[in-house]
Amino acid sequence: MVEKRIQPLARDAMAYVLAGGRGSRLKELTDRRAKPAVYFGGKSRIIDFALSNALNSGIRRIGVATQYKAHSLIRHMQRGWNFFRPERNESFDILPASQRVSETQWYEGTADAVYQNIDIIEDYGVEYMVILAGDHVYKMDYEWMLQQHVDSGADVTIGCLEVPRMDAVGFGVMHVDKSDRIIDFVEKPANPPGIPDKPDFALASMGIYVFHTRFLIDALRRDADDPNSSKDFGKDIIPYIVKNGKAVAHRFGQSCVRSDFEHEPYWRDVGTIEAYWQANIDLTAIVPELDIYDKSWPIWTYAEISPPAKFVHDDEDRRGSATSSVVAGDCIISGATLHKSLLFTGVRANSYSKLDGAVVLPSVKVGRRAQLKNVVIDHGVVIPEGLVVGEDPELDAKRFRRTESGICLITQPMIDKLDL
């Protein structure tokens, strides 16, 4: 691999995180919060991965555009990301949709979410812009992508995943030549184009873009003047550059950050209940595909002050225990049994209850003798005594949000409607 420059390009870059989306496929899990604010991994939020990647890459200017139900997201960033110092040429801007361009206009698309804040970007005078989605789970050093962008002379460099060709039908796919220059951009193709050196694979867009700042601003202004544009990077900005400029693909494997325990590049869109549950449960494996214990690439977040987790009672049928599980601070496992489960901060699991394949968000209380299998339990839910989930598919589907494979999302309004 090419050696990094002595003077990192990241020092003259700004990361701009698009974090305004609801994430409707997460159903009731995003009724009260935007998708980037959804909890992940025991103590983090999804957005912490994009923000941590930027910080760990050496980027010290970050902007986050918010829109849908942004309060919990903004509160999290104010608490956990308030350590940037202007006197060190650092900045962290939260940019809610605030009708700055028009009294009636919110962010109309991903490109518009950047366009409406051009004046703020220009004030910082950065050379490069790294545009990021705030709702994916991965570890990546953006410095490598910045260097490829400069070395290739590209107008835009697009982060891409190598995926089996027919798995790419749900993505925006890059058709590239042998030098990875993008010659066509196809949105959700029925027959995705293969990669020249790997014909059984396709390059799927990660929603990560690198631009020279001046070029991006010119492109956004041109797009804003187009009455037929939907003001979106994937639908408008990128196809225009592919046709009229130079767009280059950056393969995620070249910049994916991996510890000694991670063998394959890890990237997940946790945008469905099924994918969200699976990615969290994956962390309970002996050697998980994503190493969140890697101190060389920490996932920064709001660090709550909480007491340690506690396991109590040691009777034959009432033993506080956990196997193949991740348990955060301030959890009390009081005579309950956990297996292959992930518990966030402040969970209380009471005597004789059993949790198997459970993703339990903060401050949940699990009543005595509850039996919960393959569930996602929303923040603050109180599980009644004796509730059984995961044994009767028809009953589960009537009571809760159940996926085809049997994962049940449980929220407090669903519990309140139960006739127990």
From TrEMBL:
Keywords in alphabetical order: ATP-binding, Carbohydrate metabolism, Glycogen biosynthesis, Glycogen metabolism, Nucleotide-binding, Nucleotidyltransferase, Transferase
EC numbers: 2.7.7.27
A molecular-function term among this protein's GO annotations: ATP binding
UniProt-annotated binding residues for alpha-D-glucose 1-phosphate: Y107, G172, E187, K188, S205
Entry-linked CDD domains: ADP_Glucose_PP (cd02508), LbH_G1P_AT_C (cd04651)
Coiled coil region boundaries: none
Site feature Could play a key role in the communication between the regulatory and the substrate sites, where: Q67, W106
Reactions catalysed, as given in the entry: alpha-D-glucose 1-phosphate + ATP + H(+) = ADP-alpha-D-glucose + diphosphate
Protein name, as recorded: Glucose-1-phosphate adenylyltransferase
